Amino acid sequence: MQPILEIRGLTKTYKGGFTALRGVDLSINKGEIFALLGPNGAGKTTLIGAVCGLVRPTSGTIHAFGEDMGKHWRRLRARVGLVPQELATDMFEPVLRSVNHSRGLFGLAPNPALIEEILRALSLWEKRDAQIRTLSGGMKRRVLIAKALAHEPELLFLDEPTAGVDVELRRDMWKQIALLRERGTTVILTTHYIEEAEEMADRVGVIRGGEILMVDEKAAMMERLGRTEALITLASPLTELPEALSAYPVSLIEDGRVLCYRGGGGEGSSSGTAEVAELTKALTRAGIDYTAIDIHESSLEDIFVNLLEGPEMQGAVA
Q1: Whole-number mean pLDDT of the chain?
Q2: How far apart are CA 145 and CA 173, in angstroms?
Q3: Which DSSP symbol is given to 271?
Q4: Structural domains in the chain plus CATH codes
Q5: Which residues contact 118 (CB under 8 A, 6 or more apart)?
Q6: Residue 90 above 50 pLDDT?
Q7: What are phi and psi of 56, to 5 degrees?
Q8: C-alpha angle 169/308/60, rounded to 5°?
Q9: CA distance linking residue 52 with residue 56, whole number of Å
Q10: pTM recorded for the entire structure
């Protein structure tokens, strides 16, 4: 199946010499939720801006819906929605008029039923006559989403959609994004909240310094790069590791009172939890008593932090 968005060799160098994107290759599948993770200044917003026509790339190509956006930008842009990171909008306009105006900007006929459906889904219908400036930060961000959905985009970019939004509103937005996917909309989101990617995304990409470090299905990434950590509290401290434990990835911490295991995960590796079970048997055979075991499996956040901190991952693209 042809990807709905295909980016090849995309670079962006600004006049001052700063390079925001360095040969980015990225393919997005139709109907998926894709999360792009990266620290501030990684190039996330520049990448979105290049696709949405807000940034002119220095080199590279962008194909959307099977066509070259450089040649057919105006027509293809009408099929793309954008919820920007900044809360810049027409603050003195009523909500309903502002959302209707966004639809009209793309040359579409009025559709009151659709706009009402969007506003109700985002809990904005009761606020339809309120000026945007009177709304809370979370409700203003919902207005941005409504404006982006007004022209029925097939591909939707959400740049930090829940920044500054409380937990309850964030959960509501997650539900709305899931509903969009059910309707066939392809969603690409950038976020600082790792739990958003863990909750919603089908695939995850990690970007740093304008380069894509890795792209993979969320489950596959967690299986391949995840790790198991087990802290085994010993009944009596050890001064050194016995020979019986030499085959295991363990170390002594807290003055020999705790045995720390870090293993599992990675391609071809055995299950970390299974290896911990074998380790406890080895302890018993060696006559080493323990009083407690605390096992922790890597989260997507752990993997993300390790990728950003590991320079050896800079060129790894799946």
Answers
A1: 84
A2: 9
A3: P
A4: 5-79+153-222 (3.40.50.300), 227-297 (3.30.70)
A5: 99, 146, 149, 150
A6: yes
A7: -90, 115
A8: 90
A9: 10
A10: 0.73
Q: What is the pLDDT of residues 17-50, one digit of tens each?
A: 999 999 999 999 999 999 998 888 889 999 999 9
Q: Cβ distance 76 to 64 under 8 Å?
A: yes
Tell me whether strands 19-28 and 59-64 are parallel, antiparallel or unpaired: unpaired
- Identity at 263, one-letter amino acid code: G
Q: What radius of gyration do the chain's Cα atoms show?
A: 24
Query: What is d(CA 75, CA 69) in angstroms, rounded to the nearest whole number?
Result: 9
Please report where in the chains the tokens 């949405």 appear, as a residue.
52
Please say if the pLDDT value at position 268 is more than 60: no
From the number of C-beta atoms within 10 Å of its C-beta (0-12, 13-18, 19+), residue 92 rates as exposed
Predicted local confidence at residue 316, as pLDDT: 37
- Residue (of 302, 279, 310, 301) closest to 227 by Cα position: 302
The Cα 272–Cα 268 span in angstroms is: 12
Banded model confidence at residue 100, pLDDT cuts 50, 70, 90: very high
Which tokens belong to 292?
Answer: 């407690």
